[in-house]
Amino acid sequence: MLTKRQLFILEAIIDGYTKTAEAVGSRSISKREDVSYSPATVRNEMADLETLGFLEKPHSSSGRIPSNKGYRYYVDHLLLPRRVSESDIVDIRQLFADRITETEDVIRKSAEVLSDLTSYISVALGPDAFNTKLKHLQIVPLYESTAVAVLVTDTGSVEHRQITLPEGLEAQELEKVVRILNDRLQGVPLIELNKALYQEVASVMEQHLSQHMDVMHSLENALHTDKSEKVYYGGKTNLLSQPEFKDVDKVRSLLELLEKDEQMHQLMVPTQSGITVKIGEENDIEAFEDVSMITATYQIGGKPVGTIGILGPTRMEYSRVIGLLQYLTHDLTKMLTSWHHRE
Amino acid sequence: MLTKRQLFILEAIIDGYTKTAEAVGSRSISKREDVSYSPATVRNEMADLETLGFLEKPHSSSGRIPSNKGYRYYVDHLLLPRRVSESDIVDIRQLFADRITETEDVIRKSAEVLSDLTSYISVALGPDAFNTKLKHLQIVPLYESTAVAVLVTDTGSVEHRQITLPEGLEAQELEKVVRILNDRLQGVPLIELNKALYQEVASVMEQHLSQHMDVMHSLENALHTDKSEKVYYGGKTNLLSQPEFKDVDKVRSLLELLEKDEQMHQLMVPTQSGITVKIGEENDIEAFEDVSMITATYQIGGKPVGTIGILGPTRMEYSRVIGLLQYLTHDLTKMLTSWHHRE
DNA sequence: ATTAGCACTCAATTTAACCGAGTGCTAAAT
DNA sequence: ATTTAGCACTCGGTTAAATTGAGTGCTAAT
Lengths: 343, 343
Prior knowledge:
The structure is a homodimer.
Chain A: H1 4-20, H2 26-30, H3 39-51, E1 55-56, E2 65-66, H4 68-78, H5 86-97, H6 103-118, E3 121-125, E4 134-141, E5 146-153, E6 158-164, H7 171-185, H8 193-208, H9 212-223, E7 231-234, H10 248-259, H11 261-268, E8 275-279, E9 291-300, E10 303-313, H12 318-341
Antiparallel strand pairs in A: 1-2, 3-7, 3-10, 4-5, 5-6, 8-9, 9-10
Helix pairs in contact in A: 1-3, 1-4, 5-6, 6-12, 7-8, 8-9
The first copy, chain A, binds a DNA duplex through helix 3.
């Protein structure tokens, strides 16, 4: 078990390294006003903390930096979320004050605000297609054989897809189709729509429609939803101002990874609700060796449906970021849930 | 007037510098198999080309690199678009083979292909809101006071906006509104819809509708279109592999600029049709000092409506890029025009 | 007009010297 | 048994000098 003084020193080092990105020496700690013991004492403690694996030295005669294990200990035992500052609150409130009406927009804006406030990279995932259900479907004919399918989901978002209708489908037949679809498919998760189309709708269609084969084919396109959600980013270039990324190659491997939506998606899939902190190699991805990711889920009606998070250097301000994320997801959840229950 | 040999040497230097990103020396040119004169001769020619302003030296004892004036001359007089290679054709065809149904998608995909093929950054602008006209409008009610407005444009693209309807508007009244709108607003450019709403529709509305004030207010949101088009990018990280951008600060100022959609939009507004080449400071933007931008317009029904282009280091492969852009915009134009004329 | 020859230039690389922040360890002080 | 002063030692970073080599400009010979 760590002594009180060891804890203090560990925290001091994490603090100092977070601010300067440079290894912290014994003298600088000893000089603090709230510290009464000498550099030598600090050094002894440091040596102990190092053998315990919480600290490490970039080279033999340098000060100490926190190891990933040190960060992990800090996050698990020491850290308490910083209260969100007044000015941050203003910025976030601002976000929800703009009257935005689409889920996507809120998520995207949230990511922007978050990266602006933190100077790190923000990542956000919209409501999961697994949890998003069809609420209402409408097909608007445009030209003779072209139409738009408008899908309204229970998360309050709206999507449209252009589709081709079979030649010579009567307007009133189309109406019938739409009625059947709404009747059978409401409440079905988006990604299962196509499956449900065949399981639930096909037979009914057959009974009522002569062109049922052609129609089914058209609908397949209308109802297809990609599993992979879009990933939203904010402040991708923020990385470039961090001293640990003055090396272009590192930046590149990271930014290239961010282009791969599927991978990022996987990393962020909402698991347990609440805040998750992944430090360095805990992310299980090589390019993420020197970064940490803090994610938080937001919920709709009590169910976690999406994720929003921050990607920053391992020496990021955990306490502040966690505070911000808690605050933001709380508001997000409230807002989205209220939308969801309107009607 | 430049002699034949001078032209040859200019081209050789541009060529060499494009490939290696290093200043080209006299000896390396003289050693080429198709060159029979000595390094000294080459040096004399180089000196002349330098006083003419087509070449410059990074430092007094180095080889030559093309000046921006040199590139300009090359582009204007020497360059002939390289024939697009077979494998490039395959990739582009592939793009148009996927059945895509939305203008936006094609543009975005085009940008992707282009950056993949060139390893530069691609930039694309969707059809201009000035030239895009309303073709058809539909309002789909969702819940009691929420609805979706679906706008179909003459470029074949579809947009939706969520709007709030006045309390207690009867379905049949809504139908009337939609009919009036379609009647009066078809063919109006998107950005002028709101103006037209008041000029053309207000009075009619007043005659037929009790709640006309409230309705008008709702419609304002439905019909508002941002002037600034979205800008699509491909391969933003490609920049990071170019040797001239191993300096993080340069990269940052550039990437930050790319986040500013309005500015990029301005740079790319389709002016004359065809290919435009802007070299270095010709772009009138500080961050673009070391890059060139080649843009091409695509058309719908003979009218240039959008732009797609490439952003690369000044030493980029002009000839190849221009070839590619010509090929791609030609296909784009054909495809979009055919969509546009379907009906 | 062309080219061989040579002195010269200058960025880039290597080498050496030095500085200073910081450590570990020992022995004295508390 | 802690704590601390003291000191030798380490090592990255910086600066300065030396070396290298690709390339030039100019002159005189072809």
